[in-house]
Amino acid sequence: MTSQRLPTPAQPIFWDQAALEREQRRVFDVCQGCRRCFNLCEAFPTMFKRIDAADGEVDRLTLRHLDEVTELCFNCNVCGFVMCPYTPPHQFEIDFPRLMLRAKAVQTRAHGLSWRDRLLSSTDLMGRVNSTLAPLVNWAMGNRMVRRLMELVLAIHRDRRLPRYASVTFPAWFARRSRGMGASEDDLCHRTGPHSNSQKVALFSSCLIDYSYTSVGRAAVEVLEHNGVEVARPEQQCCGMPSMSVGDLPATLQKASANVTMLLPWIDR
Asked: CA geometry: angle at 55 spanning 52 and 57, to 5°?
């Protein structure tokens, strides 16, 4: 759905700072009258606190206040998909997660991407490097001195639980297993052709499965194959959500386009 309130990045108004600010204030004003999301995440209590300090006058919020709320949203989408009574097609057209993504994208276009956000959104690079050094990296993430340093340099709270890295990544396990079974990707392409009678799955595993929760990926493959489903894992890269979360829309679109290009032939088969 697109409108003046819910524009897409292809529309100039999406990138207009003044239009964005007007929409932020409009949405914040509706939200303060509802407050159903008061306990979902830090974004909402902070927003209500700032509005209350301004005697309920949203127009008195500064740009710093607007940016503070944007920074606290991590786009879980619970407020939009579960809680909000004003999502489209309601006339108020409230889509808070989408608004926060827009605000981050506008900020990033205007000021560039920080080295921290660029690093943390490079999940494939981080995954490959950290999996290679998994024992050392996992030890470091459990060391209080290292975590204090990470908090100082990367602004990752010392008590934030971080996923551990697997020494054997899921793509490596899958490739090794396929070779052990005598099945190359070409074999799987042939076996999953239009004349095959078996059920077929092309698995998109994601960064968390590839580098951290590899046991989930292994279990999925084993359950599928146990039920007679042939499984292939096409070449793929990060879905782009980490880049989207920091407002890097060009990187998001590049990753999405690459994945579509790689997965489309499997869908056609």
From this structure: 100
Which residues have C-beta within 8 Å of that of residue 19, sequence separation ≥ 6? Answer: 13
- Phi, psi at 115, each rounded to 5°: -65, -30
Give the list of residues 6+ apart from residue 70 with CB closer than 8 angstroms, or none.
Answer: 43, 100, 103, 104, 107
What end-to-end distance do the CA atoms of the chain give, in Å? 31
Is the bond preceding residue 265 a cis peptide, omega within 30 degrees? no
**Contact in structure between 204 and 256 (CB atoms under 8 Å):** no
Per the CB < 8 A criterion, the answer to whether 232 and 215 are in contact is no
Give 182's contacts (C-beta < 8 A, 6+ positions apart). none
Q: Find the DSSP H helices in 167-237.
A: 170-180, 185-191, 207-211, 214-226
Q: Which two tokens stand for residue 104?
A: 């981050």
Its pTM stands at 0.80
Q: Which residues contact 57 (CB under 8 A, 6 or more apart)?
A: 51
Residues 246, 250, 254, 256, Cα dihedral to 10°: 50
Beta-bridge partner residues of 200: 230
The two tokens of residue 143 are: 């060391």
What are 197-233's pLDDT values in tens digits? Answer: 578 999 999 999 999 999 999 999 999 999 999 999 9
Query: Are the C-beta atoms of 266 and 232 separated by less than 8 Å?
Result: yes
